[in-house]
Amino acid sequence: MASDSSHCPSRALTNTPLHLIASIIPSSSVPLRNKNADYVAPTPQNTPLSNAPLTREALSRPTVGTIGEENEDGAELTGALQNLDLSGLVENRLGNLVGRSSGYIESLPPHIKRRLEGLKGLQVDHTKIEAEFQKEILELEKKYATRYAPLYERRSAIVNGQEEPTKEEVLKGEASEADEEDEDEEEKTSYADVETPADAEKGIPEFWLTALKNHVALSELIEEKDEEALKALIDVRMTYLTDASGFKLEFVFDPSKNEFFTNKSLTKTYYYQDEIGYSGDLVYDHAEGCEIDWKEGKDLTHKVETKKQRNKNTNQTRTVKRSVPTSSVFNFFNPPKPPKGDEADETTDFDEIDERLELDYQIGEDLKDRIIPRAVDYFSGKALAYEDLDDDDFEDEDDEDEDEEDDDDEEERPRSTASQMAGSQDPQECKHQ
């Protein structure tokens, strides 16, 4: 689904002669996008979204040089097309030109076309080998997952206070930190021989809550009200499916500390398609969450709105309460799904659905490949140094003071799509352990 730069409207327009631009100016509005087009899920490599709709900002306006002569009114002709809003005139037609054949392949002689068909045959064989390659990679990941399992069990025991780390484990951890620090820094104190007091708090408090909050996307999903529930989170696990292609995430909670729901664990399963994607990657098919058994009045995914109604005839008033969805990290267990068949209509926002699905797959992949394997780095904040940050996250130092002044007067901005992500399918029942 990645966009091809050769299809960029602005590049196509700026390289097109003016007499050809005039020939593509539409006489009527043409839809930019087929809203009923089959949806293709992102791959585990987090394929970007579909080609974005054309906008005026995305189109460059071609100009011509100054003619240098004055018209009858004395005004200099500084560009014949300067006052023409070509971007608005051609954007619809350009949307239909993207991907259209230039006629070159059709013009080739038969013996050249035969050779091309032969190359396509080789590509078919290449695709088959590529599919085998990806399946073997998946099997290799499963093999090494069994080797990681004892380490994760040991981590869970230390985090939850069931066991204490050995002196050898502590020295390995300190040595790894020393290797990454500058030689000029003072030598740090070793904790290898520190004894634990008898009345000391067990484990590492709020380990997983802190680790999840230090992940960029998840930090936007976690509301303040969610934190109390996440304090009862004692482990996050990942297992590969044996009866299908995919993996399952399991969030384990301590029932004695969980005042919000009765589930001992919440699960979410990601399924891959049987076929390999065009780029040779595994492609997501769908995700399935689970039903959360909320305790009375503790549902964090809904809020109660109170509204007064007045009877027109008797003039009596009554109070009506209703439950409405609200932002919560626990919506993660009720994943979105694209509409199928007749479910889509003119009001369906495919761009929003694409964005929500991509975010959902992105978080699932990050939990599997980054957060679970390197939970201690997310807890300490070390992993933040390796996060992929957008250019928008940085600003010029000269503008910092000015931005701080603007922030004082600026109203609260709406949260990103990550914080607005809500489920759209009926979840499956959670496992009760």
Our measurement of the CA-to-CA distance between the termini, rounded to an integer number of angstroms, reads 40 Å
**Cross-sheet strand order for the largest sheet:** 1-2-3-4
CATH topology of the largest domain, by name, is Arylsulfatase, C-terminal domain
Query: Which residues sit in consecutive blocks of at least 5 with pLDDT less than 50?
Result: 1-41, 45-72, 409-429
**What is the CA-based Rg, rounded?**
29 Å
Strand content: 5-15%
Number of strands: 8
InterPro entries: NAP-like_sf, NAP_family
Family: Belongs to the nucleosome assembly protein (NAP) family.
Biased composition (Polar residues): 312-329, 416-427
Biased composition (Basic and acidic residues): 164-175
Quick recap:
The chain has 433 residues and is an alpha+beta fold. It has helices spanning 9-14, 18-23, 86-97, 104-107, 110-159, 167-180, 207-213, 216-221, 226-230, 350-371, 375-380, 400-409, 417-420, and strands at residues 233-240, 246-253, 265-272, 284-288, 290-291, 302-310, 317-325, 428-429. It folds into three domains: 5-100, no CATH class; 107-179; 204-390 and 413-433, 2-Layer Sandwich (Arylsulfatase, C-terminal domain).
